Each structure stands twice: as structure tokens, then as C-alpha cells.
Amino acid sequence: MFEPTSQPRVFAVPIGCDFSRSFIAGLQARLAGHGPEVLGRTEIFVNTQRMARRLKELLTEDGALLLPKIRVLTDIANHPDLPVVLPEPVSKLRRQLTLAQLVGRLLAADGSIAPQSAKFDLAQSLAAVLDEMQGEGVPMSALAEISVEDQSGHWQRSLDFLNILAQHWDSDNPTDPQDRQRAAALAFTAKWADTPPEHPVIAIGSTGSRAETALFMRAVAALPQGAVVLPGLDRALSVENWDALGGEFVSLDNPQSALAYFCRQAGVALEDIADWSDHTPANPERNALVSLALRPAPFTDQWLDEGPKLLPALDKAIEGWTLIEAETPKEESMALALRLRAALEQGKRAVLITPDRTLTRRVSAVLQRWNILPDDSAGRPLHLTPPGIFLRLVANCMGQRLTPLDLIALLKHPLTDSGVREGDSRRFAREYEKQKLRGGAPFIDFDGLRDWADKDTKNPARRVWADWIVRCLAPLETMAEGDLPAMLELHLATAEALAAGPSQESEHELWKMETGEKATQVFNTLAKDADAAGPLSIADYRALFSNVLGSETAREARASHPMVAIWGTLEARVETADLVILGGMNDPVWPGVESPDPWLNRAMRKQIGLPPPERLIGLSAHDFQQGCGAAELVLSHSLRDGDAPTVASRWIVRILNLMNGLGDTGKAAVKTLTENGQHWIDLARQMDRPATTVPPAPRPAPMPPAGKRLKQLSVTQVERLIRDPYAVYAQKILQLKRLDPLGREPDALIRGIALHKVVEVFVHRYPDSLPDDARKALLDVAEEVLRDKVPWPAMQRIWLARLARISGWFVAQEAERRLRGGSTAQEIEGAREIESLDFKLVAKADRIDTDEAGNFLIYDYKSGSPPTKAQTDFFNKQLQLEAAIAATGGFEKIGQGMPVALEYIGLSGAAQDTKGKTLSLDVTPAEIDAVWQEFVELVQSYQSTEKGFPARTRMQQMSFAYEFDHLARKGEWEESDAPVEIPVGRND
């Protein structure tokens, strides 16, 4: 196939050519005149399995023939003619588990490095370091030569650990995949030096960026009938630029640096690299523009010399080129979906290339509007599939008390009770949620669940359902720690029992389809290597399972559209389409941010000969440059992400800077690119725009009829009537109530109830006189009450500590209160009617004391700060109205009396306060009567059918969102808008 030559044989396919088609064309041209058996003997090494499939498709397009032997470069250690016998590699998971045990011991010895839960992630990063060292041929002994005297103590600890690891990792006995790969490359190099193969051997599609791959490729290039075909060679580079790129690590972030470095190591000059085929780039002018824009920093002065030479062909360079600069990622995804759809309508094959998986999911979701399902090469992350989510939910329940949220998330998952027969599981779950879980206890009481089921005596299936839940989930709470096999067994058994349902169906949906089969493989893999994990805590198991599940993807068999695809950057190296979209071109995405190595920093890597992180940026830049060679090209990025501005990819910035520096012609070209993109942005903005404009809702003030007006209020709701009448209308007239959350949360309401109970119990326990150590007695009572009323141990400690800070102040104040009056009545209910209005005011007073003259002293406890004097004058009338009720004997248990003192007692204990706050109000009978008369006038005004209930009239905090704001359509009107009174309802 090849003519004899004295130097390595390296070819290339230029940027802008379909690599696979160009390779097949060049291969067929070289085989012309040879028998078909020559192709059958040819051995081709490709960079991915996808490319292997693509080559077979292209070779068989014109009919049957003898196919060449197509192998993957990363699998040469399993070559049937491997010259050496290599041991089987340690599985990726077993190595991670082994390393995790070592990392766990390190973290146990020095907890300042990271928490124990991070050991599996750290083990994964450590495995990456080992892979790189083995691939680059750096022996573990080299770690001993690193000097970190001028660096922080963290790196010295890291180095000490790595040196200990090196003593346990035998580099002379290859057991890791990278070890085997390098050993195989060395073995082939040695064998072929003596007895080269007679058949053609060709390595294609790889840039040779990894040392072990480059070693094998150089051996192939040196064979008498061997050749290497590089992808995406930039023919616009000069020899000077090329030679500089192949030097030491000065420009590894350039797209051509990997190719240049490989050729330098192989002893091949730029002029010695011939084109593999006669295929020409789709747009050579654009290739030249992008090449100049991406020159390394030391050569950007060439913009001044070579930039003007681009002007005559600038119109040709921007032909078919679009730049989409969307406001948001959502707008970007919609614009890209529209562009893909337009390409399909024109009969063109289109592809979206991006490393941003969030963007691909958004674009796919928009395409589904038109029943277009793209062929996504990456598949779906397994942890985001239904089985992955279901298994993670089960894992999160292990080793801890079951919460209502966890229970409902499991019971409502589509894989729960997914057998053939239809059951009542979801109906029972909805009923239990509504009746017991909403606003109920923070944890599931399994005995209480059974009791609830037994109340429905007519439906025994409910008890069967409850027993099924207890049988499945109760064992999870008792699992604390153990070995991996036991945890896997419990996890698997629970998941299968939940999927089978109460009827224990064997034909459930958990393990079906590609996603279920992949989830099964995860369990099998974990079980196979479980002995390497050692003892684990539940937190360790959850972290391990999440780590393993998150590293897997599932390719689902779906009828995708043959003309639209979504690729990662790897696929774009060897294939192209009529339309290529490079999306998500923001700097943290393209190129990605270099992940910090927790084990070796840049200086340490350099000392032992590992390449710097910029190498990965160079590979990403090469993918970008190849994508830019398409006939039709779209570059897109968003200007904002959430509330933060984004930074456009450095490559887009370079291209635009170069073009804008070319004078008016260049600026006009940039304008053309952005105008092309603006067309798609405008279409995207119209997609969700309604056909007709809907006027915003006015600020409401509903006017219910006379028969539907207020009949009763509590004293605590009066302030709300003054500040936000609409909320009272929604609550009291419409009878609306916010749905309680699943389970209780330790919020301000729970804290207020608990503190009220603490004081109630304390005063009840010591009604006549305080004990000698009243502060200790108060805290003892608080501990008892919090233990009973607050089922969160952490909040018990926090709230007890806050009460302890002000306990001395409280007992001193309590002693003074005891001197003013006694005969305490607590949590006492009362009411007073306005007969002329058919209205009742009700109250539940925290505490009412009686002095020697028979007068009342009314107290109210506040878990936060008490109101201010100004607030009680105009808004907070709670105690004044309680006084008005007491003055007429509305509190039946204590009879009639005249209130003479009102006091709010703040029990916040926030920050470092050692004293609470109080607000005392001295009242006279005349003041009480005046307050009552004001209240009667307020109620009378809202009893009138001419009076509406306006929204948010006198809010204390306008910036806060309140319970019924969504019903009032807040956001469509401003606080300064006048309320619009609207008659609502009927009397009948």
C-alpha cells in the first residue's frame, strides 16, 4: 500500500473535511489496483468505538466487501497478537475502593484535609493521578524527588501520603488499565523493531495527546507498511508557528499543540505531513481566519501582518456563519432548537456539539414540541433516570428515621408498585399524606401508620398496604454500619420489595429497559468488588453509591431522528454534518475550568514530568477549531446565567477581536454574524409570546355580599385585617388555607408553641412562689418540654441555649410579676360579641394575673421581639382587645374585672443577649372603651357591602412575600396602584 520511506509515515486530514469519509477515500485510492484481500488484511486502529462503527458503515455503502480489522487504540492491551502476557487489570471500582480505604485513614489522621464523606471522590481523583503517571511513564519512585519546601503544609502532607502509597503500588507488575496500555505499546514497539508486520497497519483519528497512545502511534508510523493519519491539521500555520507549538509546555492550550508535539517526538516536520486524501475543506477562508485568531500569545503580533490579507476573502469566510448571543440559557436553547428544525426542513443533517449537558437537555426538551427526538451520543446520566432516582431515594432512607418527604417521594415514584396488576397504593398514599403527613410529625411512626390503616374496617387492603410499607422501610432505620455486601443486600431487597408492591409482583418495572439493566450492572459490579471496601458507615455507603451511579450513563433504545444529533466533543473530531452548532460557548464550559488536583499542584507535576492542565484546554481548542470548519456554522452563548453575567469563551473573544481590528470591513462582518444570530433569537422570543396581550390584573379589593361578610375574628387576626384585608378575606370568607408542608419543620411557629409551653408549665408548677434556684428549675422544665415538643435534637440544644441566655433575666422579671399579682390563669379562652353586627371577637390569652384589688394584669409571650409602642398604637391591638374582653367578663373562668396593666414579654434570646425585651402598657377604662369603639367601627366598615378588602394596604415589610400574594396576583400590580373594588359572590 505504501512506498518505502526512511522516516515515519504521518498523514493528516485538514480542518473542514469529514475525517471518516476522507480517510475512506484515501484508503480506497491507495488500494486501487490491489486485490480485495489487501483491504481484508489491513489493520486500522481508531480512537473510539463510534468511529469504528462509522468506518464500517462507509465501507459497506456500495455493497459487500472484505472488511479490514478495525480495533480501538485504547484497547491494544487486549490485542490477539499481543507480544507479552499481561495480568488481568484490577477493575476501576476495586481500585477506587482500595484507594478509598487508604484515603479514609489519611482523613481520620488529619480531619482538616476533608470530611470522611469525600474519600470516594478523593480516591477517584487519586486514581486519575495514578493513571496519568502510568500513561506518561513516570515511575512512582519519582514522587520521592519532589521538593515542596517553598509550599504550604498541605502539599507536604499530600506528598507524604503519595510516597506511602507508592510503597504499596507495584509499578513492575502492571495491573491498572493504563499500566497495561503502556506495557502493550512498549511490547509492540520492541517486537516491530525486529519483525514488523507485512500487512498495512494504520492508526487514525487520535491526536496522540496521551503518552501511551503516542508511543504506539510512533511505532505504527515507523512500520514499513504503517501510517498515522492525524485529524484536523491546520494548513494555515507556518513552519515557524508549528515548530514553536511542538516545543516545551509553552503553548499547550493551542488547538494544534498536541499534533505538533506528537510530530516533534516522532521526528516529522510540518512539510513532511501529506494530506491523506484529495478532499478539500468546506471553507478554507474561514479556517485561515480562525487559525490566525487562535495563534498562541507569543504570535498574536501576526494579526497585524496577516490580518489585512484576510480582507479580500472575508465575505467568503463568514458565508454560512451565525453567531447567537442570547440573553439567557433558555433563550439560547430555544434559538438552537429552531435552527435545528430549520435545517431538517431544508433536508440537511444537523448536529449540536457541546460539553454542556444542561444545554443539551434544554434543546432536546424544545425539540420535543415538534416530535423531534435527537440522537444523543452521550445518553442519559444513570442517576437522572427513573431507576437511578428511585435507588437514590431508597439509599437516602438508610440509617436514619424516615421523614414524610422521603416516604411520599418513594410511594409516588412510578417504579413503586409497578407490577402488572393495578393496586390502590397511590390512592392510599394520597389519603395518608392528606390526613396524617401534611403538618404532622416530622418522622414516620410505623405503629401510627398501622393504626390509621385499621380505622378503615371496610377496606382490609389498606392494612395490607401499611404492613407492606413497614416491612419494606422499617429495616432501613436500624442499619447503622457494616460491610458493603450487607448494605447492598438490604438496599437491593428494599428496592425490589417496593417495586413489587403489596401483592409482591415479580414482573415489576425496576430492572427493565436499558436504564434498569444498567442499574442492575451497578449492583453486580459493587457486589463483585465488595470485599475491597472494608467496613463502611451509612454515610460512606450513600457517598459510594452516589459516586458509582453518577459515573454511569445509559443509552436508551429510542426512535431518534436520523438527521439531527447531539454529540460530545470527542465525536466531533472524526465526523461532521451539513450544519454544525457549537453551543454553550461560555468560558467555564468551552474550555472547561481546569479542575484543581488535590494531590499534585502545577509545580509538583512539572518536577516529575507530568504535563500541565493546559493540555486539556488545547484538546478542547482542537475540537472547537475542527467544528469551525463546517460548511454551515453556528456559534452560540448566553450573556447571563441566572442573575450573573457570563463570560464568552476566549475563542469567540479572540475571533471577534481579530475581526473588529480589521477596520470597517471586519466590523461589518461581525455585524453580519450577529444579525444572522439575532434572527433566531427573535424567533425564540416569539415562541412563548401569547397571541394576544393580556392586561395585568389590578390591585384587588373584592366586595363580597352582605351574607358573606366577617362573622368572627380572633384578636391576633385584627392586625392582619388592618395591614392586609385581602388576606383576611381569603382566609375567613373564602375559607382558603395553605396546604401544610410534609411533616413539621423547626420554624418560628414550632418555637413559639414550645416556648409558650415552657412558661406555662413553669408557672403552673410553681404557682405561689418561685423555687430557690428558679433559673435551674426553668431550664429543667424547658428541657422536658423541648424533649417532648421538639423532635429535632439539634434544635432542642439550640433553643435551650437561647433560653438559657435570658433565663436569669426572666426569673427576675417573674419575681416582680408575682409581687404585682397572683391567682394566675393561663391559656384561657374568651369572647365578646357585637350583637348589632352579629359579630364575635375571640381570644386565647397566654396569662392573666389578678392583683389584690381584683384588677387584671394581662401578659402575652412573644418568641421573637415584642411590638413597639407605635405598633400597638396603630396596628397590634391584641392585648388592648383582650383587655376589652376581660372588662366585660368575656373570660368566663376568671369572671369580670378591670385590666390595669398589659405587658408583652419577648423571649428571643438571640445573638448574645442576656436580657429579653418587654413592652408594658398602662391602661384606663376610658382607653379600653376607646380601643373597643375603634374596633367596632373597623368591623362595621367591613360589614358594609360598599367596602372592599384591598390587598397589602399597610404592610410592615413590603419586600416580603405573604401567604395569599399569588391569589392577589401580586407582581402584576405595584404597591402604589389604587385598589380596584370588584363585587364578588352571591347572597344565596
Automatic annotation (TrEMBL):
Every PD-(D/E)XK endonuclease-like domain range: 712-943
Pfam families (UniProt xref): PDDEXK_1
SUPFAM superfamilies in the cross-refs: P-loop containing nucleoside triphosphate hydrolases
Name this polypeptide is given: Double-strand break repair protein AddB
Organism: Neptunicoccus cionae
Species classification: Bacteria, Pseudomonadati, Pseudomonadota, Alphaproteobacteria, Rhodobacterales
